[in-house]
Amino acid sequence: MESILQIRHLTHTYSIGTPFERDAVRDVSFEVGRGEFLGIIGHTGSGKSTLIQHLNGLLRPTEGQVLLSGRDIWAEPKKIRDVRFRVGLVFQYPEYQLFEETVYKDIAFGPVNQGRQGAELDRCVRDAARLVGLREDQLDKSPFELSGGQKRRAALAGVLAMEPDVLILDEPTAGLDPVGRETLMENIRAYHREQGKTILLVSHSMDEIARNVDRILVMKSARILMDGTPPEVFSRSEELLSAGLDIPHAARIAIALRRRGLDIPPDVYTVDALEREILRLRKETVPC
Amino acid sequence: MLKDITLGQYFPGDTIAHRLDPRTKILLTTLYIVALFSANGFVSYAVMIACLILSVRLANVPPRAMVRGLRPVLFIIVFTAVLNLFFTPGGREFFRWGFLTVTETGIKTALFMVLRIMLLIMGTFLMTYTTSPISLTDALESLLNGLKRFRVPVHELSMMMSIALRFIPTLIEETDKIMSAQKARGADLEGGNLMQRAKAMIPILVPLFVSAFRRADELATAMECRCYHGGEGRTRLHVLRYQRRDYNALAIGGVICVCVFVLGRLGW
Q1: How far apart, in whole angstroms, are the C-alpha atoms of residue A170 and residue A155?
Q2: Which helix (H) or strand (E) covers residue A127, if one does?
Q3: Which residue from A81, A88, A97 is facing B178, i.e. has the nearest CB?
Q4: Which of A164, A171, B179, B227 could form a disulfide with A88 if both were Cys (CB 3.0 to 4.6 A apart)?
Q5: Would you list the domain boundaries of chain B?
Q6: For A196-286, where are the alpha helices, taking DSSP H only?
Q7: Which residues in chain B are closer than 8 Å to A162, comparing Cβ atoms?
Q8: Which residue in chain B is spatially nearest to A143 when comparing CA positions?
């Protein structure tokens, strides 16, 4: 797969030259393929947030490089804004950044900064609103009249409207109710299917990651602990647990069953796969 | 970048200057300011400088930090110096160019004014350096307690001050976050002329105000939930009590203040 982002030996040190000096990210290297759906998991303070802010040039690496389509994003610091248009970053609780009089204008903020206007601007704003599931009549409302979940969608649309090649989402479902979570994730999946764009999803929720992504990065104390497909990563469930990380509920049950001597393969981490395994075991042990 | 701004330069420590009752420090600073403004000769300024140096040594403040405290008022210092140097008539005249004159009195006034501003800033800086903002507001409340008789809402004012101080770091963090988020949407915060720069602040200020109001609302509810009903009958976790060292410090400060006052009157 052609890679769109390459991160090479990235290190970021905060408060250099003071007693509070510490590495938030240390010697991290990985690549992201075009069209890939990558999940990043890690504890609070493991360096995820610092890492993703390097990918669109909000932070400058202390050491190392970030390459976008093979070019160092800091090669021309004056053009860093173009990088931000190509790598869209949606922060945690993005609804707190809404400011315009109407939802439409707020979504248009990014595209207008890009220099879009007229029919082109209107098209990308309406496309983005459709992608996140906002209705046409909601576009003329004030963003402060929307409900929490709708605000989140409007904020997400504000980044999607710039039509970035890479979309980075920091805990997009945090603080939403279960239905809101699921519909928002469905919108994100649909966006990935339809547009084939690259997505990086940062999350605490292992279940959310397990169900959506092609590949997982696990971060622990400023470094990458694991990098692999969900089956690869979750087959090391016990290691994840001892690193103090959560694992999907199904994987937890699989571990418990294995401890009781049942023969369940290590790469079972979804409810569906677990169900199949349990049914298979029942057929083998209970002759009917 | 915003995080580098220090508001309230309190630096924790355990020196005699840190241990003094905050009320004592406020009173001493007041005495120091009174003395400073009655000083008007080389001897009295020398006494003031000696007092400041001694206090700085006692508080164990790095001299670099003291000088850093002067940076924000550098413009005012230079402005005062220039104004006094060139526009004060009297005494021997050294230099004249058009309407600009440099006289003996001019040099002296300029020197004293600059010294006065510098000593004033450094003295108050020393107080904020050795006293945490919270104990300062506590001390103010206790010192102004007498004004309650004249229906001044002393407790409310000091509560407002504590809350404002408490939320400065929170709001700075919030501003940082909002700035990053808008930059991620291509907001240009650096370039452009004055008008464009002012306009670029809107995407930052609106969310900041919205969140400040939301926080204020939440805090008010949380306070009411805990039955906050103003200062009446309220007890404290840290009760301020004067110690022997406070009386000693106040006595020494008072004597020096009177001495400088007398020296100033004599024109020394």
Answers
A1: 13
A2: helix A118-132
A3: A97
A4: A164
A5: 2-265
A6: 206-212, 230-234, 237-242, 249-259, 271-285
A7: 185-186
A8: B207
